[in-house]
Structure formats: structure tokens, C-alpha cells
Amino acid sequence: MTLAKINATAATLTKNRTEDISCMSGMCATCVDGCLGMCEIGKSAIRGAEVIYPQPFGIITAASQKDYPIDLSHFNIMGTAVGAIGIEANSDVAIFPNVSLESRVGKDKGIKTLLPIVIPGLGSTNIAKINWPGLAVGAAVSGVPLTIGENVCGMDVESKIVKGRVVHSPELESRVKLYQKWQRDGYGEIIVQSNVEDTKLGVLEYALTKLGVRTVELKWGQGAKDIGGEVKINDLKKAQLLKERGYIVLPDPTDAKVIEAFKHGAFKEFERHSRVGMVTEEGFAQRVKELRDCGAQYVFLKTGAYRPADLARAVKFSSEYGIDLLTVDGAGGGTGMSPWRMMNEWGIPPVEIWSLTYQYAQFLDKKGKYVPPIAFAGGISLEDQIFKVLALGAPYVKLAGMARGPLAAAMVGKTVGQRIGEGRLPVYYQRFGDDLENIFVGVGELKKIYGKKFPEIPTGAIGLFTYFQRLAQGLRQLMAGSRKFALEHMTRDDIAALTKEAVQVSGIKYIMDTDKDEVKKILG
User: Fold this and answer.
1) What distance lies between CA 414 and its chain's CA centroid?
2) Cα distances (angstroms) measured from residue 112 to each of 107, 207, 417, 465, 473
3) What is the dihedral of CA 437, 403, 134, 473, to 10 degrees?
4) Angstrom distance (rounded) from CA 127 to CA 125
5) Which is it for strands 374-377 and 325-329: parallel, antiparallel or unpaired?
6) Residue 45 and residue 385: Cα distance in Å, rounded?
7) Which of 19, 288, 298, 455 would give a disulfide with 324, using CB separation of 3.0 to 4.6 Å?
8) What is the rounded distance in angstroms from the CA atom of residue 253 to the CA atom of residue 243?
9) What would the pLDDT profile of 32-41 be if each residue is shown by its tens digit?
10) Going along 59-201, which residue ranges are E strands?
11) Which residues pair with 319 in a beta bridge?
């Protein structure tokens, strides 16, 4: 890690006064009496706990700035000049457009995807809500599963809750129905996730029985933080409603002195926190059975960057109770309001936790146990990274979990679409033209697929679809170079480790040892 980032970062809108920084503390080499306090310490002296979280809340996503010892750049993709697997070894046939990127997950392999991608939980945060049209439609038309994250019903002020159970939530219903409306030829899946509060409210039961959802996800955590989900609330009545619904709200919005301070502008936002779960095997088994009895065709589990013993529990419980997809999220990033220092300093980094997951899955596989389909998540954004995680976890990993990348594509698509409508395109884009078809290269394909329905597609969705099209072509090219023409043929030998440290962590062969036995045979 670059230690100067300890006390100053764009994430918390802080910076140091001097260029020279103390390596251990991140403080300026000389801390001067009279400084107004632009650094993390100084701003904390004025705004306290507000500075724990990335800012400005509601319009950003955030990810760790820590330089982990091993990352995906420590591996290279291995190509070959020989043969083709999954297709005829013919130069006129084995061309990259013929690479199949379809994948199947679920114990019965009943969920099919056009791309080996799943978008993990995007829940009650403002940024997920305001960009949902782009995310839902874009994922649906791309054949990519999309997860509705935690706390959506609890945060919906229009939710109808009877005897502590949700019976109607316009927000959750609209999110589900929008994806279902645009789902393409049965590809993809809309998934509803739950945490502690969602379980108490009966959110998954509501989704299964009232909204036509068939896939639900239990959540043990995420790679961004070691505590429950949190958001900020700038409305007093809403803060009070959320406390009434059982959330932890800080400061207490029912306290008279707090109310007075809020009205006078001493602070402008309340924090809403979720509770941490208490995992037991008995409780997990019971919950899975309850959901299946309620009509769940597929039950997923998402776990975060907890210690190895917890990962082992996730893998073992998923095997024992027939989980249909296990998502393992490495430390470092999130789409909500994760504490910034926690985001940087907590948990097992991606390559390390992915490597442990492979080891545990392989252990159960060798014992003849069921190994669920697995998704790896944690900072994946482009096609080479997708290739590497699929190879790193082969044959168990079927999907790459991606949230910040798809959300960024949807946000840019939405913004550029607005600018086109307003006639205020930046010069950067004016060189391509001045209308949708000239600006977004994915428009032609979408018009071909949807015809007269195309004008209903939001530009955020066009942006996400176009981004996914880029990933698809890039991934096909990389797979064709490795002569693997379908995902099921990918192996751990498709990548090589560039450092001995990467070898030690991952078990992937060192690049100088790759093909050693075959080389001896070739050379005689």
C-alpha cells in the first residue's frame, strides 16, 4: 500500500498539506499549528464519524486503494499455436466469433446466461435505485443475472408491513418486474437477496409468493465490510420510520435534542445500519428448507472476505444443502457506504480468497461431494480479468461477479443519453456524431433484436449492453488465443503465475515451469 493514502484520499475528500508524508501515520511531515485540517485527522476533528465513510454519499461507488501483495496482474494468459478444443481444428472454423460464452448455473444447471457474468447485490443505496432502469434493462437484454440487494423493502417508505411482515413493496415489485419484462429468451435471472432485517420482514417469502421470483440469495456479507449494510438518510421522518421498522439509526431520530440539532443544521444526515448475522449450520439448513418449501427453485449464498474458517463453512454448507450458486467476494470494494478504513484494511484480498475457495472446493470434490457452481467477485471490470478468474477457479467457477463496472457503464450511458437529449454533448463525444445511433455502437444490435420496442430502452441500458458487448468480444478473442472455444474447456493451465509469491498463493504454475514435461518430449 502507498502509506500516504492513510490520512488523505479522494474517497473522504481529504488531502495532506505537504508533499512529504510520514510513511507510518500518513500525516504531513510537519503538522503545523494553525492548519485548517484538510487531512483525515483534521476533518475528523470537525465532522467526526461522518469522515468514516466515502463521500458524497448516494452518487458514488468506492473501492480500496490498498496495493495488495498479489493481484490479477501477477498472472498472464497462455495462448497456443496448436489445435482447438470445443470446435473443429480448422482455421476457417476456429475463429473467435465462434467462441461460446454461454454458461449454466444451478444444481440442475437450469439457469442459463449469455455471458459468464452475474451482477451481485445492488440494494437500497441511492445510486442503485436511481440507476436501476439502466441496470435492469441492460442486464436483461444482455442475458446476465442481476441481484436485488438487501434492505429494499425496509427502505421503501411505501412498503405495507402487517404484523412485522412485508405484504407489498412498490420498490421491490418495480425492480423485479422491469427485469422480467426485458428478459431475453429465458437467459439471465432476477435474484432477490436478504439480510437479517429482510429475513425478519419476510422479504424472500414475499418475492417468491407475490412477485414470481424463483431465485433467492442468502447473504453472509460482502468484500467491502465486516458489518451490516448502511446508508445515509437526509429526511427526519424517514429516519424515524426506519427506526420503527427495526433498523439501527444514528443518532437516535426520536431523541428531542437530536431532532432539534438536525433542524438547526448541526448535521444533515442520519446513518441507517443493518445488523450482523449469526451463522450456524442448523439455522442455515433450516432457512434453506424454508425457502425451498416456500417455492424457491434456486437458493444462492453470497459470502464476503471473512477469515478462512468462515469461507470453509460457506463451501461446506453450500455443498451439504445443495446451494445453487456460491458467490465469494474478495476484500476491497462496494456500491454503498462502507467505512473507508474498513474497506482498505479488512478481510482477505481477492486472489487469496479465490485461491482458498478453489482449494476447499477441490477438497470436497475429491471426496465425491457436491460442489456448487461458484462465482468470484472483487474488483473485476474487464475481459482479461474475467478470463483469469474463470481459469483460476476452473472447473468450479462459472461466473464473474461484477458490480462497480456495470454500474459505471449504466451511469455513463444515462448521462450521455441525457446530454444528447439536451443538445449538450461534450466535444469528446461529438466526434462520433450527435444522435444515439452514432454515439452508442450497441444501438444497431439492439434495434435488430427489439425493433419497434427499441425506443423504450433507457440509455443507461444501452450503455450497459454496449459495455457487455465489448467484454464479450474481448473474452472471445482471449479464449480463441488459448484455443478454448467454450467455457467448460477452460483450465487452470490457461494462466501462468509471474511471481513465486503468486505461485505460493494460488497454486498456479510459475511461468518458467509451464509445459515443462511437454517441452522435454518435444525437444527429445
Assistant:
1) 20
2) 12, 21, 30, 17, 19
3) 30
4) 5
5) parallel
6) 40
7) 298
8) 8
9) 999 999 999 9
10) 62-63, 75-77, 103-105, 111-113, 117-122, 146-148, 160-162, 165-168, 190-194
11) none
Domain annotation covers residue 462: yes
Res 335: pLDDT? 67
Query: What pLDDT does 3 receive?
Result: 46
Among 53, 51, 49, 50, smallest CA distance to 39 is for: 51
Tell whether 136 and 108 lie within a shared domain: yes
**275: in domain:** no
**Does the N-terminal peptide bond of residue 395 adopt cis geometry, omega within 30 degrees of 0?**
yes
Got the DSSP string for 407-458?
Answer: HHHHHHHHHHHHHHHHT---HHHHTT-SSHHHH-TTHHHHHHHHGGGGGGS-
Instruction: Quickly list DSSP for 182-204.
Output: H--TT-S-EEEEE-HHHHHHTHH
* Residue pair 369/518 in contact by the 8 Å Cβ criterion: no
Residue that terminates a domain, selected from 12, 31, 52: 52
Q: Are residues 14 and 144 in the same domain?
A: no
CA distances from 325 to 34, 107, 118, 338 (A): 56, 8, 11, 25
**Same domain for 405 and 469:** yes
How far is it, in rounded angstroms, from Cα 168 to Cα 158? 8
The reply to whether 187 and 39 lie within a common domain is: no
Asked if residues 99 and 486 have their Cβ atoms less than 8 Å apart, the reply is: yes
CATH code (residue 324): 3.20.20.70
Domain that holds residue 118: 59-156+172-225+282-524
Same domain, 370 and 286: yes
Q: Of 36, 52, 68, which closes a domain? A: 52
Query: What would the grid cell of residue 49 be?
Result: 464519524
In a domain, 261, yes or no: no
Q: Is 325 part of a structural domain of the chain?
A: yes
Residues 41 and 86 in one domain: no
CB contact at 8 A, 30 and 61? no
pLDDT in tens, 189-234: 999 999 999 999 999 999 999 999 999 999 998 888 888 888 899 9
pLDDT by residue (tens digit) across 290-313? 999 999 999 999 999 999 999 999
Same domain, 340 and 304: yes
Q: Let me know whether 124 and 72 are in one domain.
A: yes
Q: Distance of CA 11 to CAs 29, 62, 329, 341, Å? A: 22, 7, 21, 10
